[in-house]
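hey so i finally got around to running both of the ones u sent me last week. sorry it took forever, my laptop kept dying halfway thru and i had to restart like 3 times lol. anyway pasting them below in the order u listed, first the sequence line then the structure token line for each. didnt double check formatting much so if smth looks off just lmk and ill redo it

first one:
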Amino acid sequence: MKELLQERYFYYFEQISRIPRESGNEKAVSDWIFQWAKKLGLRAVQDAALNLVIYKQASCGYEACSPVLLQAHMDMVCEKTPDSAHDFANDPIRLCTDGEWLMSACDTTLGADNGIGMACAMAILEDKTLCHPPLEVIFTVEEETTFKGANALDPALVLAKRMINLDHAQEEELIAGSCGGTGAEFKLPLVWETVKKEDCSVWQIKLEGLLGGHSGEDIHRGRGNAIKLLMRVLQKAVLQEALVISICGGTNRLAIPREASALLACKNGYDIQKAVSTMLNELKKELGAAGASMNLQLVRQSCKEENIQVLNKESFEKVIQAVLLFPDGIFCMSSEFIGQVTSSDNLGILEVFPHTGGLKIVSEIRGLYPSMVEDTADKIRTLAAVCGAEAVFFDGYGSWEYRPVSPLREWALLKYRELYKKEMKVSVIHAGLEGAMFSQKIPGMDIISVGPDCQFFHSPKERVRIASVRRFYEFLTQLLTIK
């Protein structure tokens, strides 16, 4: 580590790793960088949201060039192993290396997302030997949670029309667009009735063992949605011989559901185990490798109540219809970027409980263009109208639309080719990035997103490849020779 910290970008990464910076707790790191910039003699602005805007004058010969903006976010996702005693509110993150990768020595997230981008920008601000146009460096807050910083930033502070976002995690790939999206909540009132305990047995059926994943970036990987799959089981194997007491599945609209379960009142004499076993084999065949660990668990439940509340048959049929017809998965793929999703919805949460009186579905709609997001929202509105349900939408965010013509992108591809004698891949990402907010606040902003190789973001396994950071910094300094 001592040798590694001789390199200024690693040095600055270690410095900011000493400062707790979970989303919503960025004041200390914002204050520290603000004072650091002023000590360097740089003009710096700290706004009410704690965003930082730092300005550096052009190097000799670049004074007449248009400014370039470098942008990263200060906050990090704070996750740790069950055995870790780390206190994210007070403890520094200690770094370690195995020679190839830089990692946390605390069994926590590393914070390379997006600390390594910040550190590279700080090294550039410090270095007086580099050639570059006027520079503007913006560090935002709460990117990982609410996009508060990017949304709150005053566009009057930005003169640049060329922006390099430093928040990507694949060295050989350039991102040229990201999706927008919105949360959707669907509520359907249901009717309940009572059955006697002696007429039935109570069973819990649980579908588990799916891989799950990010609702945008993993939506194309065929991992299966536990809610949708369980509903098929209930429709095919349960509908005629059992009544539903409750159903639940998923924990977050931003995650593909790995598990879902239902509590059932089965008619006496019905062999539910045989019916479920048949469905499990069919679903595992469909999912292939993604369903290798999938299981349908059946556990008989004790019941103290003499009378059991269950969905009446008509309401259960409404639930089946609503869930099976609810938009989920991929709707559109890119014709320009092969293999890239441009429109999707993730049915992330489902709840049916007697005490709530109805069905609730929560999903996350994503689309590369606002029209795509609205199209999926219209599908949900239409389904709600047909079913007699209510649909509301919340926490919307805009897309960063791909620009067919981008001088900054062409310059980046040229410099990468010159440096490494190979082509850089151009893609769009099916997730939200801060470039969307900047493109909307500052019309005409030419944006790219780049970064070094990082793995396992948002987990204690997070790591960044050391050699990739070195190459990325070299590439970034060459990008800044643009005129």
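and the second one:
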Amino acid sequence: MNKVLKNSWALFLGMGCIMMAYGFQGSLLGVRAVQEEFSLTATGFMMSGYFIGYFIGAATIPNIISRVGHIRVFAAFASLASLVILIHSILINPFIWFLLRVLTGISMVCIYTVAESWLNDRSTNKNRGSVLSIYMIILYGSMGIGMFLLNFSSPENFQPFILVSVITSFALIPILLTKKKPPTFKKIKAMTLKDLYEASPFGMVSSFFYGTIQAALFTLLAVYATSMNFTILEISIVTFLLAISGAISQYPVGKISDMYDRRLVIVVSTFGASAFALLAILVSRQMYLPDGLATSKTWFYIFLILFSFCSLPMFSQILAHTNDYIAKEKFVAAGAGLQFVFGLGAMSGPFLCSIFMDVVGSNGFFIFLFFFHAVIGVFGIYRMKVRQTVENPDSQFVAMPQTITPAGIELNPTTEPIEEPIQIKVTANNKENNEESITENKN
């Protein structure tokens, strides 16, 4: 563990700053959009730009890294992300912000890919799990801290945008000053959609709908809270609770899914998330009223935490379920394919959710979450009747960040190559044979 920290501290520090700025930026833009009186549909359209950019970047980043290297790519796209957030404060228009969000999505997926491929190069079979754990803690913890920076200044001012830019730019310093050599980038091929569907229909379909859910959840929660008359501090608390409770729930939910039929755990989790989404609606009826008249938000916080506990470990469960039906050597390829499908769903999530909110009001946010979680649960019940559970000893639940890229999926300890110890043994045998040959020649 100490060796991992020693070799990767610069990368972890840089990613911590990036995620702090990312968490701050997401809440900032949502609140500012409401204050600028963007329509809900326009806000959802604008927020969806990030996932379109993420999708574009994921398809192009391997060639860029192969041509110019990790450090230059990280520096270039971190600088682009720093520049883009400043333009938000100058040109306030939903369509322009949509284009800027596309650029932010491209920048972020490039940064993730560089960081995760670098961590793969630094890790070994013995410490991969530890590296992934540290990486997850840094991502979720930094993002949670960043959400509290919303209290730094009013979102109507330009200072918060400058602070996001400063934090993002600071991330460049440790990365550019590191003495460690960057890794050789290895392109990862994904399974075809046809092969992925044949291997796990439930894994592919649920990944698509979960991408729709996740994109809407993280981009529009601050918009929902602002429309419900939450204070800036309360918005920070809401977004922080979502990220941190979801991170904490990864381990216990994962352990349960390794003990029982994983599809059953996914189904129960999705219906649980649906139930808590409905309960959040029930306790939110008077929260929007002015101070003194509004009801307590305590129960809302509780139901949001429980919703997050059920919902946020879902992608890791879907990935583990898909791995239950394929050979170990295809784990990374299947993960890359699921990420592709997840991205397809994510591109439409914020826009669709904003339509729900526009039609039925602010609580359309939770109606949207209720509906799509229920869709996954119903399809899971159907698949359980069609296909029997398969025991795959190579497959197990591994907690993954929602932003994980195919390069990061390689950090999954279950994808470790098994040839390494064999190679060591062969090398030792060759050495013995060479020594015997030398002895014979001398005699």
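quick thing i noticed on the 2nd:
The radius of gyration is 23 Å.
anyway thats it, ttyl
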